[in-house]
Design goal:
By secondary structure, this protein is α+β, with helices and mostly antiparallel strands. The chain is built from five helices and five strands. 37% of the residues lie in helices and 17% in strands.
Length: 109
């Protein structure tokens, strides 16, 4: 599954990490791992993730997702931040079932 979310355990909130973009630029190279705590420093320093080349940049990613994710990580960097899959929130009996999603109002067209 490619629907990853940055999750603040302290505040019980989570945000879309950028769909496949997060997978290819953060998860696949081993900067983050599903189900594990993230290093905010490594994520914030992952230049390729934050600065997509023009041929890869989609308006929903550049204008909505990435700024919202950067704000979320910056505001919660002193908290316990995890990288989770959408299944972690939907699974019956999940400890994350009452977490609130931060909406980014994106249109993935």
């Amino acid at each position: 599954m490619n629907c990853g979310y940055f999750t603040c355990v302290n505040c019980k909130k989570y945000i879309d990490a950028g769909y496949r973009w997060a997978y290819w630029l953060l998860e696949n190279p081993g900067i983050i791992y599903k189900g594990e705590r993230i290093s905010t420093e490594q994520v914030l320093n992952a230049e390729k993730y934050w600065q997509p080349p023009s041929e890869e940049s989609y308006p929903w990613l550049v204008k909505q997702i990435l700024p919202a994710v950067h704000k979320f990580i910056s505001e919660h960097q002193q908290h316990c931040l995890l990288y989770l899959d959408e299944d972690d929130f939907a699974r019956e009996g999940s400890i994350y079932c009452d977490f609130q999603e931060i909406e980014t109002e994106c249109d993935r067209s």
